[in-house]
Write a structure and sequence with these properties.
This protein is α+β, with helices and mostly antiparallel strands. It is 33% helix and 27% strand. A nine-stranded mixed beta sheet has the order 2-1-3-4-9-5-6-7-8.
């Protein structure tokens, strides 16, 4: 099966349109459309986009997810129950379908709904905690790395102070909330009114060692009470130049 073909068929059913109606609206033959939906014909992304727009894709939906994101990520098993429910409804005449599609406003689209259930748009924050971009992250049981998706963010490493721990300037670090020290973890924290990425070593109930490694290894043992722990780093990615 073709993912884009599945998406077209899914949205067509969502919009209560017949293959003949969609073919007429988009200027393709009904046999071609049905072959695309069945996955026996390959469809170019730009043509798929034109068809999807013609049958209900809203521009604001594309602002958050592209067809490339959808085709690469969505498992349409997520929306099969909706398709099955639509298929069980009594068939109506073409004229009734046209009237229905005019009267019933469709908010969003079925594949966008599915994406919002399996993906989250996570901000990439700079050194002053301002979003500079976003990345799509898969959800697992509604969470990211076990954390509330609304509390997760990427942090753009501002320098090379952690390159000995394989985090270089410009790398993007996925972080999850953590307001207390985690032994052996790289954490984002505040200390002396500055924000740092540091590896943590718990010394005792009152003290932790903050480890960094640029040109040489450095560490500083400080009272836990003087450190503000923001989040724990769970993943790092880098951009190929």
């Amino acid at each position: 099966m073709s993912r884009l073909g599945d998406l077209i068929r899914t949205e067509r059913i969502r919009q209560k349109l017949t293959p003949r109606q969609v073919a007429k609206k988009t200027g393709v033959s009904e046999s071609y459309l049905m072959a695309v939906e069945a996955g026996t014909r390959i469809i170019a992304d730009d043509q798929a986009r034109r068809i999807l727009k013609a049958i209900g894709l809203k521009q604001q939906n594309e602002a958050e997810f592209t067809l490339d994101d959808i085709a690469a990520t969505v498992d349409l098993v997520q929306v099969q129950p909706r398709m099955a429910a639509a298929a069980k409804k009594p068939e109506r005449k073409e004229a009734e379908l046209v009237a229905s599609s005019t009267e019933e406003a469709v908010a969003g689209s079925v594949w966008l709904d599915a994406l919002q259930g399996v993906l989250r748009r996570v901000p990439v924050m700079n050194a002053v905690m301002k979003p500079v971009s976003y990345k799509l992250v898969p959800l697992e049981n509604g969470r990211i790395e076990g954390a509330n998706p609304d509390k997760v963010f990427f942090y753009l490493a501002p320098d090379d102070s952690m390159r000995g721990f394989r985090i270089h300037r410009g790398d993007i670090v996925l972080t999850v909330p953590a307001n207390s020290p985690v032994d052996g973890a790289v954490m984002l924290l505040t200390y002396n009114e500055h924000r740092y990425l540091r590896k943590i070593k718990i010394r005792d109930d009152r003290n932790v060692t903050l480890q960094s490694y640029d040109r040489q290894y450095e560490e500083e043992t400080v009272p836990i009470s003087e450190v503000g722990f923001i989040s724990r780093c769970v993943q790092v990615t880098f951009e190929l130049q």
